[in-house]
């Protein structure tokens, strides 16, 4: 069980170390052009330079597709209703159409490059394998913690199970696996009861 966790964890870490620096950066032309939060290889949000509390956002191809259709519809109309398009004359909308047409292939190329990198890295499969291994270990630890402690031998079984979990689980796993946050207190209670019973005997 531990060997599976070790192999799965090391595989994930190796992929992150190799592909993190190779993750395609969002082209400057797309930054600020949409509402999609930019993310690194591991899926963490990227903040704007110098603004640690503000996520960097960019435009996806679907965002720009909509803008192309919108600008094309307006430009092709006989008149421009300034009430509906927040101001701007035909020249401005022709400029907008030209700009979003320029951005569209950039956005599509960026999306393709990131999808290709993710697929080639094998990251999703590695994370799934680690999740399976960790859940199997968690199930084993959960069973061990739930067992009634019969003397110090029983306490040692619980301690060994918790030690194994601690070697491979990070904070996210401790929060996401059901019951993991209370294992420590449960173990402490078992230990105290066993020690008390031993003293009374």
Estimate percent helicity: 55-70%
The run of helices and strands is HEEEEHHHHHH
Helix/strand/pairing class, anyone? mainly alpha
User: Which oligomerization state do the chains in this entry correspond to?
Assistant: single chain
The count of domains is 2
What's the tally of helices? 7
Q: How many beta strands in the DSSP annotation?
A: 4
Describe what you observe in this structure.
With 201 residues, this protein is mostly helical. The protein has two domains: 17-121, no CATH class; 125-200, no CATH class. 66% of the residues lie in helices and 8% in strands. The chain has helices spanning 2-19, 61-76, 90-121, 123-146, 151-168, 171-176, 183-200, and strands at residues 31-37, 47-48, 51-55, 57-58. A two-stranded antiparallel sheet has the order 1-4. Helix 1 (2-19) packs antiparallel against helix 4 (123-146) and helix 2 (61-76) runs antiparallel to helix 3 (90-121). The two termini are 37 Å apart.
Q: Brief description of this entry?
A:
This protein is mainly alpha-helical and 201 residues long. It is 66% helix and 8% strand.
Task: Spell out the blueprint of helices and strands.
Elements: H1 2-19, E1 31-37, E2 47-48, E3 51-55, E4 57-58, H2 61-76, H3 90-121, H4 123-146, H5 151-168, H6 171-176, H7 183-200
Antiparallel strand pairs: 1-4, 2-3
Helix pairs in contact: 1-4, 2-3, 4-5, 5-7
Keyphrases for this structure?
201 residues, two-stranded antiparallel sheet, 66% helix
């Amino acid at each position: 069980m531990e060997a599976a966790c070790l192999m799965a964890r090391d595989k994930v870490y190796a992929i992150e170390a190799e592909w993190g620096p190779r993750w395609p950066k969002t082209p400057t032309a797309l930054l600020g052009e949409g509402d999609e939060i930019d993310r690194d290889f591991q899926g963490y949000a990227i903040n704007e330079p110098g603004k640690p509390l503000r996520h960097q956002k960019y435009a996806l191809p679907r965002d720009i597709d909509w803008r192309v259709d919108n600008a094309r519809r307006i430009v092709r109309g006989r008149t421009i209703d300034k009430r509906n398009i927040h101001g701007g004359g035909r020249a401005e909308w022709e400029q907008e159409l030209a700009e979003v047409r320029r951005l569209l292939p950039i956005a599509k190329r960026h999306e393709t490059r990131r999808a290709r990198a993710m697929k080639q890295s094998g990251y999703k499969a590695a994370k799934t394998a680690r999740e399976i291994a960790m859940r199997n270990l968690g199930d084993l630890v959960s069973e061990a913690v739930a067992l009634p402690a019969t003397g110090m031998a029983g306490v040692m079984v619980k301690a060994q199970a918790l030690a194994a979990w601690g070697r491979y689980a990070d904070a996210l796993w401790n929060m996401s696996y059901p019951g993991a946050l209370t294992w420590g207190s449960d173990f402490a209670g078992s230990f105290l009861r066993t020690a008390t019973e031993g003293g009374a005997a």
